[in-house]
Amino acid sequence: MAYQDKLVKTFDYIAKNLNATHTVMAIAAVKGICRPTFTMMDKTEKPETKKYTALREGITEAVAIPVYFICGELAGFGAKVMKKFQDAAAIKKAQKAAEKTGDVVDIEKLKQSPEMTRKIAKNLRFLGVCAAALVVIPSICSIAIKPIVDEIIKPPASPKIPPKKPSAPLNMNTSLAVTKPIVRPSMNSFIGHYGMKAGGV
Fold this sequence. Notes:
Layout: H1 2-17, H2 20-41, H3 47-101, H4 107-110, H5 114-152, H6 172-175, H7 187-194
Helix pairs in contact: 2-3, 3-5
């Protein structure tokens, strides 16, 4: 029973504290392990191609994990900054109203609740990891990943196709074959050869 209680408390803690940053970091870690593994298990590809592709996939996910964390936490930190500005604006507005009416301002009631701050932070973290996935990570990978991979392992050589030789232009003066006239044997040469005449012996 104690084991079940601990398990329930663990899942309850994860559910309350899980945010978009942790989720995408876990996904990137699993992809960084599984994708290179499945690529190397492919028996239909050449060994050089598999090594090159697996290395690129592994480095890409290794770059993605810290980028997700940085972008998500920076965006979540924005919720605290927003809270300070909102609290200051609410207090200032209430104090101006209290000066006219003479009421006492309860500053603690005007401040934003911690629960609201957590909700805003979760939404901002989600936007932060979306920006990381759409802009930051592709930009870093397009600039840095290929040179790093090329330094570690050479990319597979693509088959070279020999260039086609340009065909010679058609010369109308020399392309037409010169034909000799056909000489047919005459009847006289036939008679002289066999000693016969037309019409009898």
